[in-house]
């Protein structure tokens, strides 16, 4: 049995992704009932962080502890990773000592090189190209609130960033229509769009993306590493605020999602973010925990 990695949503089949979402909902119910299961007993997750994190670290570390395992926090500042050790050598060494590795990094190529030389499953906990773990949580949240996303219309409003690319992958795997509203110059990767051209359209006006949508999502206008572009991006994204007025163009029972942290008054209004009739962002954040536990369980069961 080959080692299974999770670098994008495309690394699992459609059926496998649905099974992970179903299992995540089961694991959430078990935790809410106070029922403990420990399939990760004596298992160790290595967590490599090149980017700062709140939700990612807490959800992976708590998830391992709740399932009987242990998580190691590895920062480049405190290890040989920060002193120029080749990523291939780090992969060979670390993967002989732990049972899984999650990496939160900048270049997606770093994940691919690490996975190529790893003896254990590697999980993309965010790269500049994709954020698939967040999409597992988003999909779980939609299923819990509205049922299957298949055949629905999803609107992405904002930057064509790693979250946007992961939504494009999700449109392919879960068979929904994705409308992306972004300013010129901030489009998602053309190759990623081309691979999903039958499901994805790009528009310039947020209203055109949101009209008739069942699910609306956005992200900050300047992600980590883009702080120097903040002023330019603030001007480029004028008119891309998601608020109650924009949501009025969506279907009546549409939900709003944001991967957080949110900048109230920039990409989303504070009133919409706190409106629990529309906004499901807190469930979305919690579901990182349950979706990743289900993912890790799947990868361990389907690898040597």
From TrEMBL:
UniProt KW Transferase keyword: yes
Database matches in PROSITE patterns: CARBAMOYLTRANSFERASE
Pfam families reported for this sequence: OTCace (PF00185), OTCace_N (PF02729)
EC number: 2.1.3.3
Subcellular location: Cytoplasm
Enzyme class: transferase
Pathway it works in: Amino-acid biosynthesis; L-arginine biosynthesis; L-arginine from L-ornithine and carbamoyl phosphate: step 1/3
UniProt: L-ornithine binding residues: 162, 219, 223-224
Record-linked Gene3D superfamilies: Aspartate/ornithine carbamoyltransferase
An example Gene Ontology molecular-function term: ornithine carbamoyltransferase activity
Alphabetically ordered keywords of this record: Cytoplasm, Transferase
Highest taxon of source: Bacteria
Residues of the Aspartate/ornithine carbamoyltransferase carbamoyl-P binding domain: 4-143
Keyword Secreted: no
Reactions it catalyzes: carbamoyl phosphate + L-ornithine = L-citrulline + phosphate + H(+)
Annotated Gene Ontology cellular component terms: cytoplasm
InterPro entries: Asp/Orn_carbamoyltranf_P-bd, Asp/Orn_carbamoylTrfase, Asp/Orn_carbamoylTrfase_sf, Asp_carbamoyltransf_Asp/Orn-bd, Orn/put_carbamltrans, OTCase_ArgI
Alphabetized HAMAP family for the sequence: OTCase
Family: Belongs to the aspartate/ornithine carbamoyltransferase superfamily. OTCase family.
Name of protein: Ornithine carbamoyltransferase
Native species: Microbulbifer pacificus
């Amino acid at each position: 049995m080959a080692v299974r990695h999770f670098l994008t949503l495309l690394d699992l089949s459609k059926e496998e992704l649905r099974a992970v979402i179903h299992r995540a909902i089961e694991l959430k119910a078990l935790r809410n009932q106070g029922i403990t299961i420990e399939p990760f007993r004596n298992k160790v997750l290595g967590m490599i962080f090149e980017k700062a994190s709140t939700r990612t670290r807490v959800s992976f570390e708590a998830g391992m502890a709740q399932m009987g395992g242990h998580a190691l926090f590895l920062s480049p500042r405190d290890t040989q990773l920060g002193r120029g050790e080749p990523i291939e050598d780090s992969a060979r060494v670390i993967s002989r000592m732990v049972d899984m590795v999650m990496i939160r990094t900048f270049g997606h190529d770093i994940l691919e090189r690490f996975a190529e030389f790893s003896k254990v499953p590697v999980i993309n906990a965010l790269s500049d190209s994709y954020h698939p773990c967040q999409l597992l949580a988003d999909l779980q949240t939609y299923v819990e609130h509205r049922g299957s996303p298949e055949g629905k219309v999803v609107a992405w409003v904002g930057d064509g960033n790693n979250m946007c690319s992961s939504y494009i992958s999700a449109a392919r795997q879960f068979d929904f229509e994705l409308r992306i509203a972004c300013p010129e110059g901030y489009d998602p990767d053309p190759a990623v769009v081309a691979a999903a051209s039958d499901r994805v359209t790009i528009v310039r006006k947020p209203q055109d993306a949101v009209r008739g949508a069942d699910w609306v999502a956005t992200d900050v206008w300047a992600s980590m590493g883009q702080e120097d572009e903040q002023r330019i991006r603030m001007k480029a994204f004028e008119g891309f605020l998601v608020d109650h007025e924009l949501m009025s163009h969506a279907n009546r029972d549409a939900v709003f999602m944001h991967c957080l942290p949110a900048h109230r008054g920039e990409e989303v209004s504070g009133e919409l973010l706190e409106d629990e009739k529309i906004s499901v962002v807190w469930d979305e954040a919690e579901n990182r925990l349950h979706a990743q536990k289900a993912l890790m369980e799947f990868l361990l069961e389907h690898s040597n």
